[in-house]
Amino acid sequence: MKLVLAAIHIKASSRAMPLGPAMLAAVLRRSFRDEIHTRILNLFVDQTAVECADRILESDPDHVGFSMYVWNRDLALEIASVLKQRQPGLVIFAGGPEATADQVGVLSDPAMDFVLTGEGEDLIVETLGRLLRGATPQEIATSARPMPVKDLATLPSPFLDGTLRMADYGGALWELSRGCPFTCDFCFESRGTAGIRRVPMDRVEAELDLFAASGISEVFVLDPTFNYHKANAKKVLHLIAVKAPDIHFFFEIRSEFIDREMAGLFAAIRCSLQIGLQSAHDEVLRNISRSFDPADFEAKILLLHNADVTYGFDLIYGLPGDSLEGFRASLDFAMSLVPNHIDVFRLSVLPGTRLAETAPALNLEYEASNPYHVIASPTFSGEDMALAARIAHGCDVLYNHGKAVPWFGIILEALEMSPAEVFERFATWLESHPSEDLTQTQRDFIGSLFEERGDSLRGSIAADIISYFGYSAELMDARPMESGRQDTPSRRVAFNHDPVDLLAQMQAGTISLEELVFTLPGKACNAVLSVNEGTIDIQTLHVPQSGHRLNH
Q1: Taking the chain, what is the end-to-end CA distance rounded to the nearest angstrom?
Q2: Cβ neighbours of residue 270 under 8 Å, at least 6 residues apart?
Q3: How many CB atoms lie under 10 A from the CB of residue 255?
Q4: Which of 131, 292, 327, 347 could disulfide-pair with 374, CB 3.0 to 4.6 Å?
Q5: Single pTM value for the model
Q6: H/E stretch holding 344
Q7: Residue 280 and residue 293: Cα distance in Å, rounded?
């Protein structure tokens, strides 16, 4: 049997690792040796179905399996259709979250022979074994049943057995557990699983050793709630600090399980945390089987903040019982806790979730196909959903892409505006002020807000602060990563005040625009910003001072 397992990624990145197909390939190799020749193929959603089909047929397979997610379902089915047209005898199947959640819908496609639902390792071994013994795809389609893996120690590691060659990737997806203890109505994670199961610690150690030796820069931990089992999470964090101190790790965590020790362990490694806030209203969250204690949430986030840990939040608009004003308030609450970034999503009613079952009673109007977005609800009109989407876009561009964390709070205080109001205004501004220079766009926009107030002086200082932090961030991102390279990123920037004086005062604790107006002399100049050994150098031009190095 010649099998192709296809992973369809959103885009080429360090996250574009076919971990799911690799897990299946590893168990197939162990179980069948040379009876099944498996090829793992990486495809991308910006490719056409014909291009993808051509890639698949290069291997002359007789069986093709797709790892199906909500974002690649349409393309996967289109590819399957092209494959069937070209090679009618090809056996095509799908697995993964989307195929599991909507087995009937996926199987109704004429190009799909059968669907494997739930965790795939034991199930694919049984299924392909039956096919080798003479079972037909039709028999598989009517008889295949989920087979959760009860003990993750029974599974081979696709990293350790060479199924995934680390040299092919700049990062890794890393699975440490399966299952979720929570039952959020909008999520499919906890449905159909056999409780929380963890990868044994000896395998965790061995994989960490391999990651460190391979030289990869990033690891994305797939656990939906990494820190649920606090003792186990702390063991892993200790191991990371010892074995992989140079790799940046990304975790999804719950705030409830953070304590001071854990915050310190996160601070001791290179990492970023993503925390599912979703809404700041307990009465809204109870509609989706969650709850919220704002005082506890703030206290736990403060532990991370004081430990200098990088963290971000997830928010969802369109939740049952929520409103536009409720969403604005949730966004303002989240921003008050100074996240490094904030991801804002429109609610999706995903197949197979409890929300899909309760949506009719909740009078949720939503799309019948991918991406299943909520269109309106009794408390959140279609017009309000569109406005929330505008606010979310403004937030993403101004705050996330614009890396506004260092300056946003300072300027927001001076403007006396809410974050949601600023983001909405910025989204409107972008429509008539397109520019490829995001820092300049931020400067111009914020300057316009101060001009409206007749306060051009504070606006000029705000513009300088944005310029320094914005262009410094761009330069740090552009710096050469290879040792021995001599090229140093630099940029000439116009300032309204001497940036050396400005940064010196800010570092001394003067962070109010009101104070800076009285203490910072107006001294328009140009300056060259450059990167030198991980810091930003400032060389002012046409100003008596020759330059000064500041820590970035």
Answers
A1: 57
A2: 245, 246, 247, 248, 249
A3: 22
A4: 347
A5: 0.91
A6: strand 341-346
A7: 9
Residue 11 DSSP one-character state: S
Residue ranges per structural domain of the chain: 2-143, 165-380
**384: number of Cβ within 10 Å:** 19
418, two tokens: 């809410």
Q: Is 356 exposed, middle or buried (0-12, 13-18, 19+ CB in 10 A)?
A: buried
Sheet of 525-532, strand order: 490-495, 525-532, 535-541, 548-550
Q: What pLDDT is recorded for position 183?
A: 84
Q: Which DSSP state fits 348?
A: B
SS3 letters across 299-314: HHHHHHHHCCCEEEEE
The pair of structure tokens assigned to 214 is 């391979």
Beta-bridge partner residues of 539:
528
Q: What percent of the chain has pLDDT over 70?
A: 95
Measured distance CA(279)–CA(379) in Å, rounded: 15
Mean pLDDT across the chain:
93
The H or E element spanning position 445 is: helix 438-452
| Contacts with 98 (C-beta within 8 Å, 6 or more apart), sequence order | 68, 69, 70, 72, 73, 106, 351, 370
- DSSP H helices in 340-403: 354-362, 382-395
Q: Of all helices (H) and strands (E), which one includes residue 203?
A: helix 201-214
Thinking of the domain 2-143, which architecture would CATH place it in? 3-Layer(aba) Sandwich (3.40)
Give residues with Cβ within 8 angstroms of 383, minimum separation 6.
Answer: none
Name which CATH class applies to 165-380: alpha beta
Distance CA(54)–CA(63), nearest Å, equals 15
- The string of pLDDT tens digits covering residues 483-541 is 445 567 889 999 999 999 999 999 998 789 999 999 998 889 999 999 988 889 999 98
Q: What is the DSSP string of 466-480?
A: HHHHHHHHHHHHHS-
- Per-residue pLDDT tens over the stretch 297-334: 999 999 999 999 999 999 999 999 999 999 999 999 99
Sheet of 248-253, strands arranged across:
171-174, 218-221, 248-253, 271-278, 310-317, 341-346
How long is the chain?
552
In 75-203, DSSP assigns E strands to 91-95, 114-115, 171-174, 177-178, 197-198
